[in-house]
Design a protein that fits this description.
This is Regulatory protein YycH-like domain-containing protein. It comes from Limosilactobacillus gastricus PS3. Keywords: Membrane, Transmembrane, Transmembrane helix. InterPro entries: YycI-like. By secondary structure, the protein is an alpha+beta fold. The protein has two domains: about 120 residues, Lipocalin, CATH 2.40.128.690; about 100 residues, TATA-Binding Protein (2-Layer Sandwich). About 30% of the residues lie in helices and about 35% in strands. It contains four helices and 15 strands. Strands 3, 4, 5, 6, 7, 8 and 9 form a seven-stranded antiparallel beta sheet that branches. It is globular, with a radius of gyration of 26 Å.
């Protein structure tokens, strides 16, 4: 009798547990759907407000990339690397390498790729990827990548000089001694970054956000170390006066970073 009673108690307990799990599952599913619906609604509202103010933006996303602070050596010496470079005349100025090719290169991806792969031609070349947003008719820009994230400052960059269909030389900066300072967190999305800039009247009416980029930027210095934070950078053109500005938002704190641009 006691055994049957215990058996019944366990059966009831398992039934209650199953009910709780089912309820928890549907409650979690409902919350995910609800949050997703809120995100879509917020984006729609933001786009309506931007349209009212004649502001056009590229495609925005709710995706929140990973973000973390890093430290790098405040002084990077590439003097030793310069002495081993070939097929060019190059020197180290104390802040960057300046190079002129012995023979101009064809402005082709395959040619550039082969040079970046060779440390005897470009130091640490495989650490860089092309950045079309930063490039112009007279310069082709490659940005240093840190764990798949570009350095948006000029402190980690190769700028090829373009003349017609040829590359005549380049300047190069490079970040060394990279250390992660804090655990990864979810950074703000591109949509949230635009919302921050818009709510703080940083984006004028009748303007166009030409591009948005996520990457690292220097925010402070301490004890021979430079501190870099993940940011969103936006290039904005005011159509009323054709003025271009570059706006930045700290992607972890969501605060606006003041620039001199």
């Amino acid at each position: 009798m006691n055994f049957r009673r215990i058996q019944g108690i366990f059966l009831i307990a398992f039934v209650i547990l199953d009910i709780v799990l089912v309820i928890s599952f549907f409650w979690g599913f409902w919350r995910v759907q609800s949050n997703s619906g809120q995100s879509v609604s917020q984006q729609a509202m933001l786009l309506r407000e931007l349209k009212t103010d004649s502001i056009t933006v590229p495609k925005l996303s709710n995706h929140q990339p990973r973000g973390y602070y890093i430290s790098v050596n405040s002084s990077t010496d590439l003097g030793d690397e310069v002495t081993s470079l070939t097929r060019q005349s190059a020197y180290w100025s104390g802040t960057q390498i300046t190079s002129t090719f012995n023979t101009a290169l064809a402005n082709q991806k395959s040619t550039i790729k082969s040079w970046l792969r060779s440390n005897s031609r470009i130091a640490h070349g495989q650490s860089y990827q092309v950045n079309q947003d930063f490039s112009t008719k007279s310069r082709l820009v490659y940005t240093q990548m840190i764990d798949g994230i570009p350095v948006l400052d000029a402190t980690g960059r190769i700028q090829f000089r373009v003349s017609g269909q040829k590359l005549t030389g380049y300047t190069q900066t490079y970040l060394k001694g990279i250390k992660v300072l804090r655990q990864q967190v979810s950074a703000i999305s591109s949509q949230q970054a635009v919302a921050v800039l818009y709510r703080h009247n940083e984006i004028p009416s009748n303007s166009k956000v030409i591009w948005l980029q996520y990457g690292f930027s220097k925010v402070s210095s301490s004890d021979n170390q430079d501190i870099y934070a993940p940011i969103w950078e936006a290039k904005v053109r005011d159509r009323s006066n054709n003025k271009t500005t570059y706006l930045r938002v700290n992607a972890i704190t969501g605060t606006i970073i003041q620039t001199n641009d």
